[in-house]
Amino acid sequence: MTEAVAQGAAFAPDWVSPPGETILDLIEERGWTQQALAERLGFSLKHVNQLIKGKVSLSEDAAVRLERVLGASVGFWLTREAQYREHAARLDAASQNATFVSWLEQFPVKELFDLGVLKKRRIDARGKAALVGELLAFFGVAGPEQWQMQYGRMEVAFRRSRDDQADVAAISAWLRMGEREAERQDGPRYDEQCFVAALKEIRSLTVQSPDVFGPELHRLLHGSGVAFVLVPALPRTHVSGVARWLGPQRPLIQLSLYGKTNDKFWFSFFHEAAHILLHSRQKSSVFLDDQAKHVSDSEEENEADAWARDWLIHPDDAKLLRDLPRRHDAISAFARAVGVHPGIVVGRMQHDELLPVTWLNSLKVSYRIARHAGE
Question: Are 88 and 205 in a shared domain?
Answer without folding.
Answer: no
